[in-house]
Specification:
This protein has about 270 residues and is mainly alpha-helical. About 75% of the residues lie in helices and about 0% in strands. It is built from 10 helices and no strands. It has helices spanning about 1-5, 10-30, 40-70, 80-100, 120-145, 150-180, 185-195, 200-215, 220-240, 245-269. The radius of gyration is 18 Å and the shape is globular. The protein starts with a helix and ends with a helix.
């Protein structure tokens, strides 16, 4: 079965993987139909877990392969990883500046980006949407690499998609249930919750297309996705997971998420 899927068009694989990660978010968001409130400690644990998964995925699934694919450059093999990683962070910083948003758990007065009169619930969704852009790009770039890789490359990409899907499930709940608490109906809370991840299949396809048509940028693209994900973890997920205390729980959840993704990547990839 692995051989069959690895023989498919990388762009198609990226689309399927992006739909999978979006679907995991939608499933998590559907929990709003069963719960009205989400304990802040549980929210912090979910966000901490997501942060750990993204940190581990950034290295084992993205940065490490980027460096390996640049080994032919000799002493300068670190350049594509360094350049791509830096540009990933710069890109997310620019997105942060041009899209109004509000981080989960923070007061409305701390909204970021251009001044806007958008409702708080929309700003919360936009924040998670920004966070999901690098996840989609990472999945797309990883599957785009299958074109110039082998079965092992496909497995690494599949593990990355699986890891992101796992952390998207609690994240979907961490978005939709607080929206319900803001006064939205269950249906609207679910709609906005799943909508926050719709960018993942879109950017997965974009990432795969870039790698497929401009193969030499692969190491840069892998590192770019890693840089963007690390930016999100440091600028968004970790601060959000520390809201209203629960620091030790959130930290333990981050380490657990890291460990889970590390095991998946090393054991399966």
């Amino acid at each position: 079965m692995i051989a069959y899927f690895s023989s498919l068009n990388p762009v198609l694989l990226a689309l399927l993987a992006g739909l999978f990660t979006w679907g995991c978010t939608a499933l998590g968001a559907a929990l709003v139909f069963f719960f009205k409130d989400l304990n802040q400690k549980m929210t912090n644990v979910m966000l901490g877990f997501a942060a750990g998964v993204m940190i581990a995925a950034s290295f084992w699934s993205l940065l490490s392969p980027a460096i390996e694919r640049s080994e032919g450059m000799g002493i300068w093999s670190f350049v594509p990883a360094l350049v791509g990683f830096t540009l990933g962070g710069v890109f997310l910083r620019l997105v942060d500046r041009i899209i109004p948003h509000l981080h989960l758990g923070f007061p409305e007065k701390e909204k970021e980006g251009p001044k806007t009169k958008l409702h708080k619930s929309i700003l919360l969704v936009l924040s998670i949407t920004i966070h999901n852009i690098p996840e989609g790009a990472a999945v797309g770039v990883a599957f785009g690499a299958v074109l110039v890789g082998d079965t092992e490359t496909f497995v690494t990409a599949a593990v990355l998609a699986l890891g992101i899907g796992i952390q998207n499930f609690p994240e979907g709940a961490a978005v939709s249930i607080p929206l319900r608490g803001e006064g939205l109906s269950r249906a609207k809370s679910f709609w906005y919750g799943q909508l926050s991840a719709i960018v993942e299949p879109i950017f997965a396809v974009i990432g795969a297309l870039l790698v497929v048509f401009v193969t030499p940028i692969l190491p840069y693209a892998l590192a770019f996705a890693a840089g963007a994900m690390i930016f999100v973890v440091i600028e968004e997920l970790i601060p959000e997971s520390q809201v209203e205390g629960s620091t030790d729980l959130a930290t333990a959840a981050t380490m657990a998420g890291f460990a889970v993704m590390m095991v998946l990547d090393v054991a399966l990839g």
